[in-house]
Please model this.
Amino acid sequence: MAGDLTYMVTAAPGLEDIVVSEIMSKFPQAWIRAQMRGRVLLVTDDPWESLLQLGCIDNLYLHLGWLKVGPHKADLPDLTSEIASLAFPEFPLLTRPNGKTMAIVNASRSGRHTFSRFDAAAAALEGLTLGRGYVPGTKDAHDLHFRLDILGQDALFSLKLTDAAFRFRGQRSFSRAALRPSVAHALVWLSDPREDDVFLDPFCGSGTIPIERAAYPAVSITGGDISPAAVQTATQNAPEQVEIRLLDACDLKEIPSGSITSIVTNLPWGKQIAKDEDLDALYCRFLAEAKRVLAASGRAILLTDRHEELAEACRMAQMQCRALYTISLHGMLPAVYSVTHGN
Ligand SMILES: C[S@@+](CC[C@H](N)C(=O)[O-])C[C@H]1O[C@@H](n2cnc3c(N)ncnc32)[C@H](O)[C@@H]1O
Model:
């Protein structure tokens, strides 16, 4: 269709299906052109700013083209020529009326090549200089930020449309073990948020998950943590419809039985665990409380890399546990689980 543009969105590897589900739900006219590790290409004539309502993505790019890249450093002049002759789409940011445009290129590379990603970025920037008259900018001073993703003999070339403020939701402060907001949003999206939800994140840390949950209506949204410091940070971060409480996830006595429709939480796991912390006991006690507070049709979406501990805790609590997705996060591979009463 006239006006259609191709965009690339990025997300934590493993979350691509969830990103596609969010795109299809929020932009029903868009179509998915490709899905790769950590990236989805979509085509739409929706204004690009409207795509910023996608919560599961880290960044948004305007896709400019698929290029061919040879394996050797001697092949890089071909990349320069390809970019110099690339026909750019009509896009407001690309057509600056006055003065010189400063551009930078970041490159990533997977596959076997005899050049580095820095060599490739320099070749691409030269192409932009020759073809478009752009001048090289710096990390701190540039008008346009391009990205070159080299995947073997192919490369994706794109223009970055989002900055760090988008990825980290402005100036919010994060605890050491905080999830990226996009990952928290993906967990929330998987929980299938409904306006009659009574929502709880009982290990909320700096509040990333309940804050992302606040993007959708609910009866109530509560985050809790056993650490007073975490509660203080989460309280500062959270919008007013989110209630943050000091609570022990293993002893939720203030929460009535069967009153919660949706739990989404990032359990303690990975490097955040103290050496002497007994995760088996923590998971068992939490799962017993989750079973008590969850409504009969309720569901918990849990993130952890402690697969065996979680499976055992669910077995003890007689809850059904299903692994949904494995995510690549900070060099670790936690999985997302759906836990239900399963009766
Ligand atoms: C993985 S972090 C959660 C990080 C959070 N998702 C964020 O983005 O900031 C786990 C949190 O569980 C909390 N915690 C540990 N044991 C707890 C317990 N028994 N009850 C409630 N919170 C607990 C820790 O204080 C920590 O903040």
The first helix runs from residue 16 to 26.
